[in-house]
Each structure stands twice: as C-alpha cells, then as structure tokens.
Amino acid sequence: MNWLEQVLGSEWKITPAGGATGDAYFATNDEQELFLKRNSSPFLAVLSAEGIVPKLIWTKRMENGDVITAQHRIGRELKPKDMNGQNVAELLRKIHRSKELLDMLKRLGKQPLTPNSIVEDIKEAVAFEGINLSIINEALELLTKQLPNVQCDEQVVCHCDVNHNNWLLSDENQLYLIDWDGAMIADPAIDVGILLYWYIDEADWREWLLSYGLILDEHLKTRIYWYVLLQALTSFLWYYAKNNEKEKQNWIEHIHIIMRKIMTC
Length: 265
Description:
By secondary structure, the protein is α+β, with helices and mostly antiparallel strands. The protein is 47% helix and 16% strand. A hairpin with a 2-residue loop joins strand 2 and strand 3 (32-38).
C-alpha cells in the first residue's frame, strides 16, 4: 500500500476494502473517511455525475501510470429487508433507462450479453472443470430449452451484482449502488430477477415491479427465473473451482428449488 501513502500521507489509517481485484481501500483520518480505488474504469465518472455512486472527490495519476480515485465513504449498507423499498426500484429503473451509462459502456467496448452466449460460456466452464453431475446437466438442458422464450430486445446497463451489501443509504437518505466492476449490457431481467428472487416475496413482485415501471407477465417471469437459475449455476461453478464443499451443496439445493419453480411456471 505504499502507493496510498504517497497519495494521502502517513496520517491516514488505510485498510483493505475487499473485492475481487484487491485494489480497493478505506482510508480514515479523524472523522474523514474515503473509499479509494486503483485503476477504476472511466465508467465511475459517469456513475458519479449521474448520482448513482457517491460523488467522486478527486482523481490522481501516479508516475507509474496508475490512476487513483477517491470517494467519500458514506452511509450504511442496506439490510435484506430494505430491498423492498420503492427507492431501490426507482434507482434501478434510473440505471436501466440511462442513455448516458449505456453510451459510456459501449464506448468502453462492452458487447451486449445474450442468453445464447451465456449458456455457451457456462457449458464451456462445466466441461473445463470436468463436471458430470445429473443436476447440473439437467439445469443446462433446461436453460437451453428455454432459450427461445427468454429473448429480449431491450439491452440496458446491468449492474449484475445487486446484493444488498452493494446498496448504500446516506444520512440524507440518498441511495447509491456501488461496485460496478461486473457491469454488462444485457437484459434488465438479470438485475430485476436476482433482486426479486432473493429479497422479495413473490406475492409482492407485481407491486415492486410497478414502482420499477414494468408489468409482471409470463415472458418477464420466465426471464426472471431463467437468469436466477443461471446465477445459481455460476455460483456453484465459483465454489466448485474453490473446492468449497459446503457452498457447492448449498447451491445444488438452490438449483433444485429454482428448477422446480421453472417447471411449475
């Protein structure tokens, strides 16, 4: 973390902020708290300007070419019970309808993610790992069979990890969605489906979707469960590669449950 000391000075207490890249840190000095990231995507500036992430305070380029960004560390993470709020639906709608965000991701070279390409990627990963479990094969068959029913012309900026830990509420009740490293251009059902399935009772889906701006019909419901099953398979593969037996079994159970839901839709 020498590069951080060069930027901030030794009076700041610096701790890792976690995340997949290991390039994110919290810095504290008296009552000041910052979130620092090395080599953030230029996408961050647009997200800040749109009020979707906490305001970008400064950007500094290091002698080695690294770019450091700083944002205020503010507010609290949402709890699972908070995800049913209208503010969550409205912010996700704003993100999905933002032409500025979509144009920026396109300029950064992001290609739209299609259901067909996702299934092929999953099949390749399963083959690479040498997995031959009946439940995984059945899930892949179901995803493939459903492909004609999940095509969607709408392609928007999707966050792709709408876990409650990535939503921050400031002391002024301003809601933010952070950690955009996995953002893609795709069917909005990727975000909507994961959020609904894991956080909101199915009886409340219709009302939540009205706040978001959609009507729950059979096509949307099919896409929701399709992407939820896809996420479960992806999570299983993640823990399979890490040889985490407990989480592997956990996700196999989820895959069984989701498949039963799809069969009864």
